[in-house]
Amino acid sequence: MKLWNKGIELDKAVEAYTVGSDPQVGLHLLPYDCQASIAHAHMLNKIGVLKADEMQKLVGGLQEIIELNKKGQFKIEQSDEDCHTAIEKYLTSKYGEAGKKIHTGRSRNDQVLVALALYQIDQLKQVKELAKAFVAAAAKSKKKFGPICMAGYTHMQKAMPSSVGLWLGAYEDAMSDNLILIDAQLKLLDQNPLGTGAGYGIPVFNLDRKMTAKELGFSKVQENPIYAQAARGKFAAGTLSVLTQVMYDLNKFASDLTLFSMAEFGYAKLPAEFTTGSSIMPQKRNPDVCELMRAKYHVVLAEEFKVKSLMANLMHGYSRDFQLTSESLLNAMDITQSSLSIAALILEKLEFDKKKCEASLTPELYATEEAYKLVKGGMAFRDAYKKVGEKYKK
Question: Does the annotation count 278 as an active-site position?
Answer without folding.
Answer: yes
